[in-house]
């Protein structure tokens, strides 16, 4: 994000120079004033329920935190195939009339953030294709690491791509196979390397697949005789579904008129569920591998207190993702937990202003320090990660401006040093502050009195619900330790993120 001040025409009055968009909250740059990681994408699927589109709407609404850029639902009744996609939040893309027009008992839905794929409607999912056996819709969460290589090979042999989304690669691989749909999908999925959770819908079938390492979460539930699938269990709870189980690594489920067939397209490899799901992405009321996120984050905070105690007057968490960890830190130490920081939820998704001065003001518009709580106090500020360091510095300075005498920062993850190739929007390695500064240099950069990170061992032990025999507790910690569970060098840009 550039900090260059854009003043516009020198003759402009000061009021009109404050923004250049159609409305004040639009700003001039896409993104966010907060230097945080973007929440990948979210998928939701239904098979065998007459109100599939309505269930998908509510499910996607529960997954909104995973993607705020676009939303889409595709539905079929076994004969007709209908879909709608749009840019914006779920409630902005769909209204009552639109949902009622999507008639059928099976559907897939998607909420999206764009990272390596362009931000435009053609990339909004589910993507819909004309396949020889009928319409095909695909929704995915994650990133195909070897997509650049496969795309080049397909283009060299005559394929024409309509989007920049890596999801389209799967459709081309299926279409070029002489086999039936299920066998073609199995073969195509086996060629992909990366972290992904796929939902593939045809008029008579729904296919559900998870990558061989289980990097991206996907859970199955039941509503009566209907099956439902979601990126997080909170979406299933929203529609009153009974949670059945997580989709296993390398698994391929086929749902058709015969019911559910459990199959697989690859043998499971090293289990490596994304650790950032536990630390930051997933909602605190979700469960992953039998571990509740709120409880896991509380344990992270408690472990942080054991590893890096500091004497202070109050503990506060950066809302919303760090509140649970802050409570755990406070309970472990006996230091009172206080709401020292308040998040304003109504400032919009792109509150970016054209000057550094206004950007700093934007921070205060979205996050406020409670002066009467922090004034004259030694504050322990709990956060989940430090990316570039700019957000941490702004929040520390907010607390200092509100009168905090000391600000001690505790991060409930190890230092974030490496880009993610499996579906998280991360900057280039050279932009990650932990990759080129020591912890003390980072402390000075963010203007804190002390700074400490949770150890990898502490993180693994805190999460719980994991198979202790699995390598690194069955987690992917590559963004911390550079130990990627798959090959990542396929000729693409290092900054891959989530191109779904």
Automatic annotation (TrEMBL):
The keyword Repeat does not apply. Keywords: 4Fe-4S, Glutamine amidotransferase, Glycosyltransferase, Iron, Iron-sulfur, Magnesium, Metal-binding, Purine biosynthesis, Transferase. SUPFAM superfamilies: N-terminal nucleophile aminohydrolases (Ntn hydrolases), PRTase-like. Mg(2+) binds at residues 321, 383-384. Its cofactor is [4Fe-4S] cluster; Mg(2+). The keyword Glycosyltransferase applies. [4Fe-4S] cluster binds at residues 274, 420, 476, 479. Residues 41-258 form the Glutamine amidotransferase type-2 domain. One of its GO terms (biological process) is purine nucleobase biosynthetic process. CDD domains: GPATase_N, PRTases_typeI. It catalyses: 5-phospho-beta-D-ribosylamine + L-glutamate + diphosphate = 5-phospho-alpha-D-ribose 1-diphosphate + L-glutamine + H2O. Pfam families: GATase_7. Coiled coil: none annotated. It comes from the Bacteria. Pathway: Purine metabolism; IMP biosynthesis via de novo pathway; N(1)-(5-phospho-D-ribosyl)glycinamide from 5-phospho-alpha-D-ribose 1-diphosphate: step 1/2. It is an enzyme of class 2 (transferase). Binds 1 [4Fe-4S] cluster per subunit. Its EC number is 2.4.2.14. The active site is at 41 (nucleophile). GO terms for molecular function: 4 iron, 4 sulfur cluster binding; amidophosphoribosyltransferase activity; magnesium ion binding. Catalyzes the formation of phosphoribosylamine from phosphoribosylpyrophosphate (PRPP) and glutamine. In the C-terminal section; belongs to the purine/pyrimidine phosphoribosyltransferase family. HAMAP family: PurF. This is Amidophosphoribosyltransferase. The gene is purF.
